[in-house]
Amino acid sequence: MDFVELPVNQKAATWNRTIEERLNRLVRARDRWRARLGLGGRAADYDDVHYECEGGARDDLRRKHYDKSLRLLWKAEAAAPWSSFRDLAAGERAVADMAEQSLSPAEREVRARITSAEFRAELDRHYTPRQKQALVNILSAIGHGEAYAWLVSASNLRDVQSSGAKAAVTMQVLEEAKHFVVLRELIGAFAVPVPRQSAWEYLLLEGVLKARGLEKFYGMNVLVETIALSIFGALAHLPGLELLRLFHLDEARHTALPQNYFKEFPMTRRQRTGRRARARRLRMALPTLPLILLLEEDLAVLGIDAFEFAGSVLRKVVHLSDRAGFELPAPPEVMLGRFNALFNLYCRLTRPGHQARDFMAAETSRDEVVARVEHDAFGGRAPTRAAAAAGGPPAAPSPAAAAGDDAAAVGRG
Ligand SMILES: [Fe+2]
Ligand SMILES: [Fe+2]
Question: What is the CA(160)–ligand 1 centre distance, in A?
């Protein structure tokens, strides 16, 4: 290139360089000493000399979570055309338009009619007012959880090391923000009162947000995400709620993050097995039990047994905790046995003629696309051939294809 070079005062340029070099040494020495004295050194855990976050590149984590999240990124406008979201890029809109042209005239008319009012009318056709209220009570419990998932994952950005892990967590922040705003609109479409957080949810989620360092990975990615994933799994087969398959797919990926992260940055033995840490984890999970008792009535309206639901959640939580290295006060089988005894005791007291049974072996996810994702992740029931035929929401990435892709990451990390 031919640039017309401008004259520069060389003496001034040398002064400026010298001043910067001396100030650089001074500022960094000051922050090193302040850090050593516990007075707070450099705020950013960033290594500008190597152009990486502290902890290095860790591209494997980036590939498993950041790249995969972008590959499976779904847009609300395509998955929920009745919503107010207009998030498709021009290229995506062109693809959606082309896909629409391949529909038959009748199919195209149905799709064009799905406005917000049409969607509400469709929900009214499928559900009684009590069923709508039950769905909203259950979905809003996790809707409030999505707000906390957003805040917790944003705060996790400061707790994880390496560029790869920060990129992975950044995608979780983005997905939780999307979950919160999209789920809020879906819940709003039911047009029934949305309950506040119950006291048990308040205690559970505040406990997770206040947890120290990577214990938040246990509270959020293992415990709360598994509850969310199980609720989405139990409802995704219902009319108007097919969109929940996409939420389920994202949450499955989020539950795999702790074990993938600890492969790169293992916890110390004390962090994994310390008596206080194990007791803290159990304490953090305890509000889940009364929360499920509180939801028993609404789950029953939808034909879901609260204890089967709780059993399937706890089996997955205990399994994921074990895989990530978050030890609990007792080995997995013992923990599950104790919870099962407690559930059977409660049922004996409240359900006439109750016969003892293994709630921990129950599975309340009915959707075949969901089953495909969970099969590899948790060793649940095998997906049937119907899964291949089950489609996702219109114009969304095929959840069946995405589930297969995601299951590989969730199951084998
Ligand atoms: Fe979420
Ligand atoms: Fe999540």
Answer: 19
